[in-house]
Design goal:
Layout: E1 3-10, H1 14-26, H2 28-34, E2 38-46, E3 59-67, E4 78-82, H3 84-89, E5 108-109, E6 127-128, E7 138-141, E8 144-145, E9 179-187, E10 200-205, E11 213-222, E12 226-231, E13 246-259, E14 264-281, E15 284-304, E16 307-322, E17 327-328, E18 332-348, E19 352-369, E20 372-377, E21 392-396, E22 401-416, E23 419-421, E24 424-443, E25 447-450, E26 453-455, E27 468-469, E28 472-473, H4 477-484, H5 493-500, E29 503-505, E30 508-510, E31 512-516, E32 519-538, E33 541-552, E34 559-570, E35 575-585, H6 589-597, E36 602-605, E37 608-609, E38 612-613, E39 617-618, E40 626-628, E41 636-648, E42 651-672, E43 678-700, E44 704-717, E45 727-729, E46 735-737, E47 746-754, E48 761-769, H7 770-779, E49 784-794, E50 797-806, E51 809-822, E52 835-846, E53 849-862, E54 866-875, E55 891-905
Parallel strand pairs: 7-10, 17-21, 20-25, 40-43, 47-52
Antiparallel strand pairs: 1-3, 2-3, 4-9, 5-6, 7-8, 9-10, 11-13, 11-55, 12-55, 13-14, 14-15, 15-16, 16-18, 18-19, 19-22, 20-21, 22-24, 23-24, 24-32, 25-31, 26-30, 27-30, 28-29, 31-36, 32-33, 33-34, 34-35, 35-41, 36-39, 37-38, 41-42, 42-43, 43-44, 44-49, 45-46, 47-48, 49-50, 50-53, 51-52, 53-54, ...
């Protein structure tokens, strides 16, 4: 086994005693988890020099031995800890917090994690820690929640949302440069933490040391350092061959940490990331740009040996300028991120350790774009859809939206001094939190979506210039016939081709549009949480009994979540058996309340009279729907876990079984309210099950560390949680929508069936809601994930490598195409049979793949305590495919890519 030796010098000097006590206060809770058990090996006294100012008596020298810590927990908690060294070693790509979580067992990334645009994207990928969607994971920064309720799950598929703004589970994107250590929980989470049904990620930011430190770091990548896999569909025509993106991404950060007085420390950090990328939009090359800022100011004041105050302010906005690659005049920009501030008092008293924190956070998401969206038919005059083979030509945007979330919180945690009870040590902790959250959804203008264009060569637009175009010929028929010397004979193939190519534009118009009115929805939510937990330790046994209470004034449910975990040490403390049974309640109430306050869309139609469109009028069976959430239970997740840990080869071997059962998940029931409006009523019929088996081994040695894990997981969602078929069929087999969904809420999901010989293929198109498509994706979690990571340091060299295996899975691919449906009934008198276009997504089998990332750093000391570090980072160094492009699509996948950097530290 690998051991550390700690030497403590005990002296009667009060100055040293006070400093030691102050050090203990700073991070007692986290230190208890990270520090392994230690055993006093030697204790003896040594004569102290009497002429020193800090010593007046003998010094006791104590040698303590203990195993080197590795990420696997030494307690009964299901937590993994990544220290600052590991965060530096496994920093690849943007350096976001989520980017490093993949080295841990069972972590699954979202569908976009390996997409080609990730090389230029600044926003981190969503992660799942226990089979849930990304927004079920809890995030804390210095104890303050970093979860955003402004996020929308549909953003995993589309950034350009019709009724919302693309957001993220995290309110701000914290860069690894700002983090001291991460604690990641996937099971047996203490009662102190709640308001999530997945896992928990705790980030503690850096603190100032006892001497001046400062540094500056610069990293860069560009298209010259990236290789792409260009993939073409079987029916690719050969025209418009794929061009690799032209881009560059820069990351600049700087920090300063210094003691201002003997009791006051200061740390300031700033990080700036910018990305510029050229993309093909309808055959033209255009530039997209994204920026992200991270600024941190932190003050620590040791008022006494037992009282420590800290203030931190984090400022982290981001902005992206985008366009829809398949739509004309579709530019849009998204601004998000925000800031948070906290004031914390940590007090160490003889009877308890007390932590009090006052927090404030403010996050925003906004979108600025055109307010009109068209789905023209791909015919002359509106034929840019030819580039991607679509039957439609898309144009425009979905209107301006602003969203904001503000939270004020106060919480206190108490850890009472250890007591002895019936021969066992008892450690009691309890606490509470009060929070008020305000959320606003502001649609700044009416948004109009035109769908279901009608071809009409004889249409007379009569002044409707925006949503109607008339037929226009290059030459009149008389002129053509004069040149030919005979009348056009359309039965003659040559004459027909001349006639067909003479259309500059073919007349078409819209008879149907959906309008989302300008409106503002504002809600307020008050929350109360409290917990109590007691740990009993007796000989080789430990038992934690806890319960957490949560209440909010919207659902008004009194939620009690039991937390139970225990462990027993075996084989002379070389092994440990850990068992747990826990419940976690969700925190979606503010989203439900905000949805309920929003205004629905409505539909307008118009008839054609004597080849002229008439005035728009409200459709009798109006579109759009409201949300109603009443008498709902709070969704929760019940967890059972079992683990065995054994000290092996200087590290820790862990076998873990984790089972999660989600209950009372909120599903949507179609109906009407008292005034006849289409309404989605919230119900608690949904459920899901997740099970995972994991084998892990992690070790830390003198100058290197290694981590290995492999997981097998299954995830199933009950059919009750799905919206189901949105259409009804009459006796003739004709379909009509049976609910007033927004047009942009519906998509086609294509599934293909092949015969044994593979010579024929039957394509099935299923019309589903985006809500259901997201649930389908959750069922597609990769069954097998494996990771092998390593880092080491020799003299001036620091090396690391990280290999990840992603098992095969069913996946949903966006095709960029549309499919139409016709409704069985006319939408108005004088209207043609209505047809609408919806985007098509495709279910395909995604093969297994594995990726290897490496990092090399070289540090050299220069004059006056300065150090310069040169870095080289490589992702997917073996240039493997990631299978982000369907076998039937044309597109680009990311291959090998590099980052270069330089760092100066003092």
């Amino acid at each position: 086994m690998q051991y550390l030796t700690f030497i403590a010098l005990a002296c009667t000097s009060l100055t040293h005693v006070a400093a030691a006590a102050q050090s203990t206060v700073l991070d007692e809770a986290s230190a208890a988890e990270r520090t392994p058990a230690k055993v006093i090996a030697i204790s003896h006294y040594q004569q102290c020099k009497k002429n020193t100012d800090t010593c007046s008596e003998n010094i006791e020298i104590i040698e303590v031995t203990g195993q080197r810590p590795n990420p696997i927990s030494v307690s009964s908690q299901g937590v993994y800890t990544l220290d600052r060294k590991m965060l530096r070693d496994y920093r690849f790509g943007n350096g976001n917090l989520n980017d490093v979580l993949g080295v841990l067992p069972g972590v699954q990334y979202g569908e976009t994690a390996y997409a080609a645009d990730q090389v230029s994207n600044i926003k981190p990928s969503e992660v799942s820690l226990a089979g849930t969607q990304g927004n079920a994971t809890g995030y804390l920064i210095d104890g303050l929640s970093n979860n955003s309720n402004l996020n929308n799950d549909s953003a995993n598929f589309d950034k350009n949302l019709a009724q919302d703004v693309s957001g993220h589970t995290q309110a701000v994107f914290l860069n690894l440069d700002l983090i001291d250590h991460l604690e990641v929980y996937d099971s047996n989470i203490p009662a102190k933490y709640g308001n999530f049904t997945g896992g928990l990620v705790k980030a503690e930011t850096r603190k100032a040391g006892d001497k001046l430190q400062f540094g500056i770091n610069y990293r860069q990548t560009s298209d010259d350092w990236v290789e792409y896999h260009k993939l073409y569909a079987p029916d690719f025509s050969g025209d418009n061959e794929l061009n690799s993106a032209i881009f560059n991404k820069r990351d600049l950060s700087t920090y300063i940490a210094t003691p201002l007085t003997d009791k006051l420390g200061f740390i300031g950090q700033f990080q700036y990331t910018q990305s510029q990328e050229s993309l093909q939009q309808l055959g033209q090359t255009r530039l997209q740009q994204q920026t992200n800022y991270n600024g941190l100011v932190k003050l620590d004041y040791a008022a006494t040996a037992n009282d420590d105050f800290s203030f931190s302010f984090l400022f982290a906005p981001y902005k992206g300028d985008y366009f829809d690659v398949n739509a004309k005049n579709s530019d849009y920009n998204i601004e998000g991120g925000g800031n948070n501030a906290s004031l914390t008092w940590q007090a160490d008293r003889s009877w308890a350790y007390i932590k009090t924190q006052l927090g404030y956070s403010d996050s925003r998401n906004s979108k600025n774009t055109s307010s009109i969206r068209y789905a023209w038919l791909n015919i002359p005059g509106k034929d840019w859809g030819n580039i991607d083979g679509s039957i439609t030509s898309l144009e425009g945007g979905f209107g301006d939206i602003e969203k904001r979330q503000q939270t004020v919180s106060l919480k206190q945690d108490f850890e009472l001094a250890s007591k002895t009870w019936l021969g066992a040590y008892s450690n009691l902790s309890f606490g509470y939190e009060l929070a008020q959250q305000n959320s606003v959804f502001d649609r700044l203008e009416d948004a109009i979506v035109y769908n279901g264009a009608i071809v009409s060569p004889q249409i007379d637009c009569a002044g409707y210039a925006l949503d109607c175009i008339e037929t226009r010929l290059y030459q009149s028929v008389a002129d053509i016939e004069a040149k030919l010397g005979h009348a056009l004979d359309l039965s003659n193939p040559d004459d027909f081709l001349i006639y067909q190519n003479n259309f500059a534009t073919t007349g078409q118009y819209f008879q149907y549009r959906q309008i989302t009115p300008k409106s503002t929805a504002s809600v307020k939510l008050n929350q109360l949480s409290a917990y109590v937990e007691n740990e009993f330790e007796w000989q080789n046994y430990s038992l934690n009994l806890g319960v957490r209470y949560d209440y909010n004034d919207f659902l008004k449910n009194h939620n009690f979540a039991p937390r139970l975990r225990g462990s027993v040490s075996v084989f002379n403390d070389q092994g440990k058996i850990v068992l747990g049974a826990n419940r976690y309640y969700a925190d979606d109430s503010i989203s439900y309340k905000l949805n309920q306050a929003m205004q629905p869309s409505y539909t307008e139609v118009r008839a054609i009279y004597q080849q002229q469109p008439q005035q728009w009028q409200a459709q009798l069976s109006n579109r759009g729907y409201r949300y109603v959430y009443s008498d709902l239970k709070t969704p929760f997740s019940d967890e059972l876990s079992a683990a065995y840990r054994h000290q092996l080869l200087g590290g820790t071997l862990e076998l873990k079984w984790l089972y999660r059962e989600q209950q009372d998940a909120v599903n949507r029931v179609k109906g009407t309210n008292d005034v006849g409006e289409a309404t989605l009523f919230g119900a608690n019929s949904g459920s899901s099950r997740y099970q995972r088996y994991t084998l892990s081994w992690m070790a830390t040695y003198n100058n290197q560390h290694v981590e290995f894990n492999v997981s097998h997981a299954t995830n199933t969602t009950s059919r009750e949680q799905f919206d189901g078929e949105p259409r009804s069929f009459n006796g003739d087999g004709d379909a009509f929508l049976d609910f007033s969904y927004d047009d942009n809420e519906l998509v086609f999901l294509r599934s293909d069936h092949y015969d044994i010989a593979g010579s024929t293929n039957k394509a099935n198109y299923y019309l589903v809601t985006r809500h259901d498509m997201e649930l389908e994706k959750q069922d597609f979690n990769r069954p097998v994930i494996a990771n092998l990571s390593w880092g080491g340091q020799w003299d001036n060299w620091t090396l690391s490598a990280y290999a990840r295996y992603n098992g095969g899975q069913d996946a949903i691919y966006a095709t960029g195409k549309t499919q139409s449906i016709k409704e069985a009934s006319n939408i108005c008198d004088g209207c043609a049979p209505n047809r609408r276009e919806y985007p098509v997504y495709r279910i395909e089998k995604r093969p297994a793949f594995w990726l290897l990332n490496t990092s090399v750093k070289y540090t050299v000391a220069v004059a006056n305590n300065y150090q310069i570090t040169l870095s080289f980072e490589a992702e997917n160094i073996l240039n493997k495919r990631t299978y982000q492009i369907s076998p039937y699509n044309t597109g680009i996948e990311l291959g090998r890519r590099f980052w270069l950097g330089a760092n100066i530290n003092y």
